[in-house]
UniProtKB/TrEMBL annotation:
Organism of provenance: Atrichornis clamosus
Lineage: superkingdom: Eukaryota
PANTHER family (UniProt xref): SEROTONIN N-ACETYLTRANSFERASE
Entry-linked SUPFAM superfamilies: Acyl-CoA N-acyltransferases (Nat) (SSF55729)
Protein name listed in UniProt: Serotonin N-acetyltransferase
Pathway annotation: Aromatic compound metabolism; melatonin biosynthesis; melatonin from serotonin: step 1/2
Positions of the N-acetyltransferase domain: 33-194
Keywords: Acyltransferase, Biological rhythms, Cytoplasm, Melatonin biosynthesis, Phosphoprotein, Transferase
CC terms in the record's Gene Ontology section: cytoplasm
GO-annotated biological processes: circadian rhythm; melatonin biosynthetic process; response to light stimulus
Protein's cellular compartments: Cytoplasm
Entry similarity comment: Belongs to the acetyltransferase family. AANAT subfamily.
Listed PROSITE patterns: GNAT
Length: 205
């Protein structure tokens, strides 16, 4: 059984009826809405969305193109993309971390033995903002993490103005983050992740 078939909330969601040709023959169409883990082939689309979302606000991106490729090669299973008719509209990229709190090294390292999922970036394409897609994607991502046997908690760092958004997603603030980027300061936030056995009993994972 593939990972996708085992995780019902990653299956394609058909929001529109399938299109038919004039003769009544069903045409093959892409799913109206689909969630899946990203691959290195998605890196350019990811970077284009991220660059537009962050450079206008902070002047830099959490991950540059080579870093996106780095994580999508090392741990693609810790990413999630939202596609509409084959087009990437929002994404999350994560990696594993093996310490209680994030440090500067967490920006570039993936620790395969870690139990904390470091969420590096969540971004939504400008055309699809203010539609609640960021919250929906985060909910799906956290549900997905609960089916991974090694994941115990999710960590992220954000600027002060984003704290209320992540609190609504269920994260709690841990205090100032040790990490600084270009003089910017961040708040570190955490979300507990239940283990694999719980989800297998309760959601068919």
């Amino acid at each position: 059984m593939s990972a996708l078939s085992a995780l019902p909330f990653l299956k394609p969601v058909h929001l529109q009826p399938p299109r038919s040709s004039p003769g009544g023959q069903r045409r093959h169409t892409l799913p109206a809405s689909e969630f899946r883990c990203l691959s290195p082939g998605d890196a350019v689309s990811v970077f284009e969305i991220e660059r537009e979302a962050f450079i206008s606000v902070s002047g830099d991106c959490p991950l540059h193109l080579d870093e996106i490729r780095h994580f999508l090669n090392l741990c693609p299973e810790l990413s999630l993309g939202w596609f509409e008719e084959g087009r990437l509209v929002a994404f999350i990229i994560g990696s594993l971390w093996d310490q209680e709190r994030l440090s500067q090294a967490a920006l570039t390292l993936h620790k395969p033995q870690g139990t904390a999922v470091h969420i590096h970036v969540l971004a939504v394409h400008r055309t699809f903002r203010q539609q609640g897609k960021g919250s929906i994607l985060m909910w799906r991502y956290l549900q997905y993490l609960r089916c991974l046997p090694f994941a115990r908690r999710a960590l992220l760092m954000c600027e002060d103005f984003l704290v209320p958004f992540y609190q609504k997603c269920g994260f709690e603030a841990l205090g100032p983050c040790q990490v600084t980027v270009g003089g910017l300061a961040f708040v570190e936030m955490q979300h507990p992740v239940r283990g694999h056995a719980f989800m297998r009993r309760n959601s068919g994972c």
